[in-house]
Predict the 3D structure of the following.
Amino acid sequence: MPPSRSCTLIGAPVETGAAQPGCLMGPAALRTAGLGRAVTSLNWDLRDAGDLSIPAQRPLAHPNAAIHGLAETCNWIEVLEQAAFDTAGACDLPIFMGGDHSLSAGTVAGIARYAAMQARPLFVLWLDAHPDLHSLDTTTSGNLHGTPVAYVTGQPGCEAYPPLTAPVDPGNLCMMGIRSVDGPEGARIRDQGFAVHDMRALDETGVLAPLRAFLGRVMAANGLLHVSLDVDFLDPAIAPAVGTTVPGGATFREAHLIMEVLGDSGLVTSLDLVELNPFLDERGRTASLMVDLAASLLGRRVLDRPTRSFAA
């Protein structure tokens, strides 16, 4: 058995970046579904740091009247950025349990600052139905979970957020599973050179070729690798507990294969599990699937997977 490595769980009950309430229950649902037990069963030393919190905020105005939760999102970015920076240096793999995807504006920013201090580039694998490339100026829904990639890559229009210490190079992002892109996001993808493998591309090539090519770049650059897994990356038929369902997502085996290959690579240094809304789940099946996917990344393989019933 390989030597034990260290993992820290950090809950981020954020839901102000989304339109539908319920994501604040995500960290509790992941714990209830057995994330901690899965970590320790795979010979990882586990520390559960509990849930982060922010105080009540006074509203912040923005020229875009559609935006809501700006003050809360800014405070969450600050808290999560510091927590991610601190934890990256204290364990082998921090896992940030959300919470809506706006939390990644903080986690990625903090990991990027840590990577810069190590003189190593940060790479990000974005597993999501959406590219989350809206700025605060271009979002029409006002839901700030659609802005983290624009923020962490230093795009204009995010100046209302906390100052960014270490922007992520857009060329160091790989997006997989994309199937819902708004006009301004599409323009940024074309202009900035983001690597986007939408579901049609994955249907044509499979998940292995683009994933292995990306991991090869991470290894060649001696980079850190942050993985951000949104529930809506998955097909809603197997993962209904998300407020932004988009049909045609990744299948059970596609998702597990990605996680198993990531685990084999040994390159992943931090992980987000986001957009789990237990209020929309069916007997905890989405929470259980997210735990199983995290376990695949942590080293569980097909022959190790326990039998589980998903009968209604």
Observations:
- The domain at 5-300 is CATH 3.40.800.10 (Arginase; Chain A).
- The longest strand covers residues 5-12.
- The chain has one domain: 5-300.
- DSSP finds ten helices and eight strands in the chain.
